[in-house]
Fold this sequence. Notes:
Elements: H1 4-15, E1 43-45, E2 52-60, H2 66-73, E3 79-82, H3 92-95, E4 114-118, E5 124-128, E6 141-142, H4 147-152, H5 159-173, H6 182-193, E7 199-202, E8 209-212, E9 214-215, E10 238-242, E11 245-254, E12 258-267, E13 273-286, H7 289-299, E14 302-303, H8 305-310, E15 317-318, E16 324-326, E17 330-337, E18 349-352, E19 356-365, H9 372-375, E20 385-394, E21 401-404, E22 416-418, H10 425-442, E23 452-453, E24 459-460, E25 462-463, H11 475-484, E26 487-488, E27 514-516, H12 531-551
Parallel strand pairs: 1-10, 2-3, 2-13, 3-10, 7-8, 13-27, 14-15
Antiparallel strand pairs: 4-5, 6-9, 8-18, 11-12, 12-13, 16-21, 17-20, 17-25, 17-26, 18-19, 19-20, 21-22, 23-24
Amino acid sequence: MATPRVQFTLMFLLMFSIVLQPIVLLEVQANDLDQDSSYLQFVYNATESPSEEVYDYIVVGGGTAGCPLATTLSANYSVLLLERGGVALNDPNVLLEENALANNLPTDDINSPGQTFTSEDGVPNVRGRVLGGTSMINGGIYSRADEDFYNESGIEWNMSIVKSAYEWVEEAIVTQTDQINSWQTSVKTALLQSGIRPYNGLTLEHLQGTKIFGSIFDRTGRRHGAVELLNKAKKKNLRVVVHATVERVVFASNTSLGLSAIGVVYHDTNGNPHVARIREKGEIILSAGTLGSPQLLLMSGVGPRSYLSSLNIPIVYDQPFIGQFLIDNPRSLVTITPPFPLDDIGSRVVGITKSFYIEPVSGTAPFSSPVSPILFPDPYPPLNLTVLSIYEKISRPLSTGFLRLASPTNASLSPIVRFNYYNDTRDLSQCANAVRAIGKMLRTPVMEQYKFMDQHGQRYFQFVGQALPQNLFDDEAMREFCHNTLSSFNHYHGGCLAQKVVDSHLKVIGINALRVVDFSTFVVSPGTNPQATIMMFGRYIGVKILEERKTN
């Protein structure tokens, strides 16, 4: 029986494919850069930073939200963008979709684009640690948020600006094509034949039924992550610093203004400290992600009083909800290998229902590496194997968890996380329904071609990992399958929720000049895949801040 770790490892090879490659930032001339990497003209290693500096805005986290946010603010103001990771400019395993099943797993070296962690639930996971964030290590899926997300978010939205913010992102890095490979075509047909209708064609909108979505992989299979949105920045106003690990936010208090954020302290790879401060009317904006932003607030003395006291962290502001209400959308998958050669790669189709989403992925898993015995027990195939997977994602899990610090002083360590998957049994029932839907898909006529035939003429699927239960109406078997195949879609969110930690404008409640703009503020994961909305979100809040400054 496959363990959750085996299932995750297969998913990780399919979706994340990360290798260790040293990042060296060189001084280059503009004419040495191609269009996609012109942002390197204002990217520096933290070791090159002065000991003290001043900006209008400091954005902590050069990821999926931080890149578009910093770019937008640079139109009128000086901006410092701090990223703890490096640059994956020339890493083919990150940039090329054809390498989606490369033979490498991530490491925890400072140069690896991803940092792995395992929650206390025992489920392995990964967080981005590279300029561009998780948009540089994900499956590339681009699909906008569902309407319910905006109504439930607790964030104030101007839908006209939302629309233009999406379009701002899409014109730069998103590819739309209805030309899909054979596995995607088969799954699209199976979704429709099994009742997930109507067919909505190629669209970026979130519509119930079956559709083809956009991708940040172009037609040649090259990734265009959030990092390329930096190309839109006003160069003279933006300084991007990589390998810069922020240790804490600096605060000041007076009787007239109250408590305000005034700067940050970060260190470079040599351990040298640097201080960056903001000018009057400026802001510190945390875009360090679901784990990084609450972690930094806690380390800075903003969080539950009793918890901070237990770690001897000086209390700056008592905020009981920081690090609480963490949610991860649990995921199960069914994987088969076909009876014929198939060189399909990627993911372009999704089935959308009210309670769950279904997405197919395909690629080639290499077996000439130490990864092989993790995926299969000996003897494992000494060859490359095509794997075809169908994932399910619960749209609105009700189970919530929390995070706490692994160290009160070392920001390089990922916090300790518990998501409490299936703690609310309604989530388990939704998973069973989603897996049952996959089972129905596998019984449609179009899927017959993916079956093998035994010596008695009986046709069967060759499952990789745990086989789907035969009886789709056996609720206990379905729930057991969900437990045994539990893994993560890496869409975890919460920890700095809107209306609990930040207000409807993302300003930290009770503290001036401090915002959180990232996935940690979301009550729910938007749509089938969040990256489109997170990139839009960075652009959106940047535009709103510019409007605020202009009005004031």
